[in-house]
Design a protein that fits this description.
The complex is a heterodimer. By secondary structure, chain A is of the alpha+beta class. Helix content of chain A is about 30%, strand content about 15%. Helices cover about 40% and strands about 25% of the residues of chain B. Chain B is built from twelve helices and 13 strands. In chain B, the strands form four sheets. A five-stranded antiparallel β-sheet of chain B has the order 3-4-9-5-6. In chain B, strands 10-11-12-13 form a four-stranded antiparallel β-sheet, sandwiched between helices. In chain B, β11 and β12 form a beta hairpin. Chain B is globular. Classes of the chains: A alpha+beta, B alpha+beta. The site of flavin-adenine dinucleotide (FAD) has 31 residues of chain B, from β1, α6, α7, α8 and β9.
């Protein structure tokens, strides 16, 4: 067992986790943050994306112990932001959501790319290539993404 | 570093170095290894830093792909490394995966291993006590998933020598899934409008990225007018010379064709930019 302290969605949070526990399980099962989705579990699909210290990571392949002292943002943490408000409007207009399983990961990845958080944006397609969507096809995603990051 | 090495020495087979965990946790999840101790290298001071001395770029073994692609010194001294790092895997793997982890895991589907072989890079290795050694990248991998490192040796840094004047580097890959099916780096040096030196390295289809001497030979002496024919010859020579990981009746001819096309394409790109300047 390990004790950790980290800021999750702006709130200082103390946790007790097993050494081998993954962040995805902690978020979903201990903290009830089920907006973080479980799918491929091999870092390919992006459904489990969360932001740790500003960078998108796969929570399915990150030991929970890694977030000690870190700042974590899940989709629930975006709820009251102006980004989220805009994203809702843009995603709706471009019909970017069908089943919605990929949407939290996609939104968090896009959020990390806005406002120069990761420096100048080099290649939007490359940045989003790790977020798979089985429903919509990628044109509507790219159209919405371009609008949101421009 | 010394402490990390001695921990590995002490715990033996049930311990492993651990950086981003993008490969290690995957093999643990698949039940391919049974480890009880992970020795985290990321938090060791200096193991993520990037510096330059005497024109040689030195990248710490625990630097992540994301740190490498956004580092101004890497941009200045080894721009090819920036463009390669920025296309590895996906944004999430780049955020945590490290250069040292990529090289130490020795997955043939590695972009940096192919590029760094062409650039003549070396790895600085640390072991227990005062043990240190430097290996050319060509000697680091001895086979697919096998390195020349001892169990308790870690990659402290990768050093990349300065490019000779007139040198251009191109790196190309094809991928059908997340990891590349083939990686090719071509580095050429031009003097007075003619290619005087060439390096051609092919990886991922091969167990270990290797220079292909006959393909290199086909590029030396080329000038603008002979480039088209020359790069095709280099492609043929590479397809002939490459030692394939899968040379079965089904996959072999396909992998050779992939090699032919991609070597020609990458060589054309490198030569065109070398002859431009
Ligand atoms: C979905 C996916 C797609 C990928 N696509 C690509 C791609 O397109 N191109 C490409 O090149 N790579 C690709 N990779 C591989 C990726 O680059 C590596 O997973 C990553 O760099 C490994 O680094 P790590 O720090 O996570 O290693 P870890 O998983 O922490 O460690 C891997 C191994 O190296 C050892 N190790 C780690 N650091 C050191 C060190 N400094 N010294 C000695 N031993 C060490 C560990 O003991 C372990 O055995 C992909 C990986 C994934 C998961
Ligand atoms: S569930 Fe983590 S990337 Fe697919
Ligand atoms: S909307 Fe269903 S996976 Fe993207």
């Amino acid at each position: 067992m390990m004790q950790l302290e980290s800021t999750i969605n702006g709130r200082c949070t103390q946790l007790e986790v097993n050494d081998n526990e993954l962040l995805l399980d902690v978020l979903r099962d201990h903290l009830g943050l089920t907006g973080t989705k479980r799918s491929c579990e091999v870092e390919v699909c992006g459904a489990c994306t969360v932001i740790v210290d500003g960078l998108p990571v796969s929570s399915c392949m990150l030991l929970a112990s890694e977030i000690d002292g870190a700042e974590v943002v899940t989709i629930e943490g975006l709820r009251d932001t102006t980004f989220y408000e805009r994203a809702q409007e843009v995603f709706t207009r471009h019909a970017t959501v069908q089943c919605g399983f990929c949407t939290p990961g996609l939104l968090l990845t896009l959020w990390s790319l806005t406002d120069g958080r990761l420096g100048p944006l080099r290649d939007l397609r490359e940045e989003l290539s790790g977020n798979l969507c089985r429903c919509t096809g990628y044109q509507s995603i790219l159209a919405a993404a371009e609008e949101l990051t421009s | 570093m010394e402490e990390a090495a001695s921990l590995l020495h002490r715990f033996g087979d049930v311990a492993s170095f651990y950086a981003g965990g993008t490969e290690l946790l995957l093999v643990m999840k698949m039940g391919l290894t049974d480890l009880s101790h992970l020795v985290d290298l990321k938090r060791i001071d200096g193991l993520r830093s990037v510096s330059v001395s005497n024109g040689t770029l030195r990248i710490g073994g625990a630097a992540t792909h994301r740190e490498i692609e956004s580092n101004p010194l890497v941009m200045e001294y080894a721009p090819a490394m920036v463009s390669v790092a920025s296309r590895i895997a996906n944004a999430r793997v780049r955020a945590v995966g490290t250069l040292g982890g990529n090289l130490a895991f020795a997955d043939p589907a590695s972009d940096p291993a192919t590029l760094l072989t062409a650039l003549g890079a070396c790895v600085e290795v640390r072991g227990t006590g005062d043990s240190r050694r430097t290996l050319p990248l060509e000697d680091l991998w001895v086979g697919a998933y096998q390195t020349a490192l001892d169990h308790d040796e870690l990659i402290e840094a990768v050093t990349i020598p300065v490019l000779k004047p007139g040198t251009s580097v191109a790196h190309e890959r094809m991928k059908f899934q997340e990891r590349p099916a083939i990686t090719v780096t071509v580095s050429v040096t031009a003097v007075n409008g003619s290619i005087v030196d060439a390096r051609v390295v092919v990886g991922a289809v091969a167990p270990v990225p290797r220079r292909l001497a006959r393909a290199e030979y086909a590029l030396v002496g080329l000038v603008a007018e002979t480039t088209e024919a020359g790069v095709d010859l280099a492609g043929d020579a590479a397809a002939d010379g490459v030692q394939l990981l899968d040379d079965s009746d089904e996959a072999g001819p396909y992998n050779r064709q992939l090699t032919r096309i991609l070597v020609a394409r990458t060589a054309r790109q490198a030569i065109e930019s070398a002859l431009l300047v």
